[in-house]
Specification:
The chain is an alpha/beta fold. The chain has a single domain, classed as TIM Barrel (Alpha-Beta Barrel), CATH 3.20.20.220. The chain is about 50% helix and about 15% strand. It has an eight-stranded parallel β-barrel, surrounded by eight helices. The chain binds flavin-adenine dinucleotide. The site of flavin-adenine dinucleotide has 22 residues, from strand 4, strand 7 and helix 12.
Length: about 300
């Protein structure tokens, strides 16, 4: 990590909360479900679909997990009530993965059952590499019983190619992304070019296996690789989508929409917006640079 990044991380907590709030407004759809629903309404009216994420992770008490389950059930009810084109994304550690794997499975299962009632879909986000095996195990267990659940695989991880082979065989619905967590070189590729080659390879494998993929990136090189394989394998529109984070690369999002591709926007919201923003900054200083650029509107 460079000296510049170290300094950024050190001084970030000194930035006044209102400034962090102002900057993160672009990336976080407010603290309440009502504000998140309004954001999704706007996205839907622009032709994009969405996925809602209730901010929170690494729950250390069962009551926190229970509260998160209830919040997600409300989110699903509200999506149905407002007839939005929107699914949900959740983090296993928010729902108890670090406390008790069985508790986490039962919590996510409750949410998947409610989603199935509305014909909706649950995406299980992928967190740091310590949780990868447990998360895949949890997903495969749910996938045996339910078709409305999907997983995320990170192109930066060396293990992902092997994981994809197993998941493609199971007919999994996957979101592919680079991976946001700062992992060791033993576990992850550190060269951005290799992460990109691996991302392309994972897209190709999934499309060849005729599995549904969400290509989650703002990197136009990866978007291009996705489009190349979609074209080469004559992939139906119902087999893939592109995904982007709220407030990021809106121009590329519009280009893809104009090209007739489905685009889903990841919409995080909730009272934990401050902790979320600060933790992301510490884990991946690149985000600090994006925020500073956004603040000063530097391209
Ligand atoms: C829909 C979605 C879901 C995700 N889910 C997960 C997950 O479950 N697990 C996980 O580990 N990671 C997840 N990520 C994060 C992902 O792994 C990457 O860290 C992130 O998308 C940046 O990678 P990139 O492919 O956009 O390429 P980069 O090369 O990192 O970014 C390309 C360009 O996009 C812009 N950009 C990228 N990210 C941001 C940002 N946050 N703010 C402002 N500008 C930005 C910058 O201009 C940058 O130059 C998700 C990303 C998306 C889009």
């Amino acid at each position: 990590m460079s000296l510049f990044h170290n300094l950024l991380i050190k001084f970030m907590p000194l930035v006044p909360k209102p400034i962090v709030k102002f900057v993160s407004k672009r990336y976080v759809a407010g603290a309440t479900l009502a504000s998140a629903i309004e954001t999704v309404k706007v996205l839907n009216s622009e032709g994009t679909v969405a996925t809602l994420d209730v901010l929170g992770e690494s729950s250390i008490r069962r009551e926190e997990c229970e509260a998160a389950v209830n919040e997600y059930l409300q989110v699903l009810d509200s999506i149905a009530e407002h007839r939005l084109d929107c699914n949900i994304s959740l983090k296993p550690t928010q729902l108890g993965l670090l406390l008790d794997e069985e508790l986490c499975y039962l919590n996510i299962r409750q949410i998947v059952v409610r989603a199935a009632k509305y014909n909706n879909f649950v995406r299980i986000d992928m967190e740091d590499a310590q949780t990868t095996s447990a998360t895949i195990k949890l997903f495969l267990r749910l996938h045996k019983e339910f078709s409305n659940v999907g997983l995320v695989i990170q192109a930066c991880l060396r293990r992902s190619l092997d994981d994809i082979n197993v998941l493609a065989e199971a007919g999994a619905n996957l979101r592919l992304c680079k991976g946001i967590y700062n992992e060791t070189r033993a576990l992850a590729f550190k060269d951005p070019a290799i992460v990109n080659y691996n991302f392309s390879l994972l897209i190709k494998k999934m499309l060849q296996a005729k599995c549904y993929i969400g290509i989650a990136t703002h990197d136009e090189k990866i978007v291009w690789a996705g489009l190349k394989y979609i074209n080469q394998f004559n992939v139906e529109k119902s087999q893939y989508e592109f995904q982007m984070l709220l407030g990021v690369e809106e121009e590329l999002r519009k280009i893809l929409l104009a090209g007739g591709h489905k685009v889903r926007v990841y919409v995080p919201f909730g009272i934990k917006w401050y902790a979320y923003s600060m933790r992301r900054l510490k884990e991946n200083p690149k985000i600090a640079v994006y925020i500073i650029k956004a603040f000063f509107r530097i391209k």
